[in-house]
Amino acid sequence: MLTMYGIKNCDTIKKARKYLDANGVAYQFHDYRADGLEADLLQRFSDTLGWEALLNTRGTTWRKLDEATRSAVDNAAAAQQLMLAQPAMIKRPLLCRADGSMLLGFNETAYASFIVEKS
C-alpha cells in the first residue's frame, strides 16, 4: 500500500492524486494539517531523503519567514523543528511504500516507475 503525505489544497498534491486515481493505484492520503505529523515520522523521512531535500525553500511559507529564522536553519535539528511547527515547509507530495522507499515531488514518469517497482 502506498501512502501520500502532503496538504490537500496543494496544487501539486492535486495533480499527483489525480494521476494515481486515473491509473487505479490504491493509496492512503495523509494530510499534515488534518492528520498531524509525528517527530519520529519526520525523522524517518529525513533519514531517507535528507533534510535539505525535504525543506521547501521555494514556497510561500519559507519566503514569509524573517531572515534570521531562515539563516538559523542550517542543520537537521533546526530544519526538523521548523517543519514540525509548519508542515507546509515540507516539499510535497511525498509518496511512501510499505517497504520504506520514498519518492519526493511529482513527475508522471517517476511515479510510473515507482509504482511498477512495488509490484
UniProtKB/TrEMBL annotation:
Gene3D superfamilies from the UniProt entry: Glutaredoxin (3.40.30.10)
Protein origin, superkingdom: Bacteria
UniProt cross-references to Pfam families, sorted A to Z: ArsC
UniProt-listed InterPro entries: Arsenate_reductase-like, Thioredoxin-like_sf, Tscrpt_reg_Spx/MgsR
NCBIfam families reported for this sequence: arsC_related, PRK10853.1
Recorded family membership: Belongs to the ArsC family.
Record's protein name: ArsC family reductase
Source organism (scientific name): Erwinia aeris
